[in-house]
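[step 3/7] fold_predict: job queued, chain A
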Amino acid sequence: MKKIFLLIIIIFIYSCGYSPLYLAGKNDMLLNLKKIEGDFELNNYIKNNFKIASDINSANIFDINAETKFEKIILTKDATGNATDYRLDFTVKFIILSENKEVSYKESFKIKKNDQKFEQSNYEREIKKNFSEIVKDKLVLYLLNLDDN
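[step 4/7] structure written:
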């Protein structure tokens, strides 16, 4: 019974037509980041993600300027006036110079305050890293759609 179930699962997985975005061969592009301004840490994550997503030998070159903004806003305070909940706001505006287009992405994330500052800063750093990956993926999909038109 287990072998039949395993065989059925394997057949469905192989026949679904799924192919990863970066292995499909369509993302043959070089993301050339000319200028980036804003939050230093977020900028570094975006630069690194662009390097990973770029193909140096590609003929599709996209020159891009970027402006990032990060805000940490206090949502609630306890009776003593100490912050208990925060909202992290991320904004990235990409100016695609080679296509004369502009695209912006905004995200918000609510977090609770951690009593240990080291763990709090690590958590915020991880959220920034995840946001930069999401933004890079959205930009790559946007550029692929531009390239198809």
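[step 5/7] annotate
The radius of gyration is 20 Å.
The chain has one domain: 25-148.
exit 0
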